[in-house]
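Please, does this match?
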Amino acid sequence: SWKCEASLSIHESGWLVYKFKTVDDKLAVLANGPYLIYGRPLIIKAMPEYFDFGADEMSCVPVWVKFPGLPFKCWSPRCLSRIANKLGTPIQSDQLTCNMARVSYARVLVELNLLADLKSSIVINLPNGSTLTQPVIYETLPRFCKLCKVLGHNTGTCTSTSTSSPTPVVARPLGKQRHPSSVTTKGRSVFDRLGPVAEPRLGKANGQLGD
């Protein structure tokens, strides 16, 4: 359960749009998880300004990534953002990483494309001209089928006999409704759905990574 208040609007396509009272509340919800509803993953991400409610494919999800033994010179928001960008789209680092209160590994929330092969290590060019092969550890990767392009089961256990017209796992729409006004609130809304995922926005405050 979330330890904060949030208003909810439901889009006719099945998307749930949450609006939080403060940016800190939104970031706290984004930083925690994973969240489950009746055993199914609930994907939550910051809502972009021009989100497409009609998108059906879901292959990009936020996942916490650890970089064990990362040199301290690479712990700045700018360096972490560049390192995480080798895996996907960096979203934010956790508070312990920001404060360097836990120095055994840096931890960053990254939007990963599950259709791509996940890297077990990346090569980093250090400021002194040398290179470092940095191990990568993924936390709580969701089950994802590359054939159906949906969450909920793995490719190896997929029972689908055809890759055409896949049926995504989505929240059931609740009938025709007006377009919720909260979805256009820039930088203050969070959406979730057991369906498509859009690209998150980046920031610098409260653990957000820099450019």
Q: What stands out?
A: The chain is about 10% helix and 30% strand. The chain has a mean pLDDT of 72.
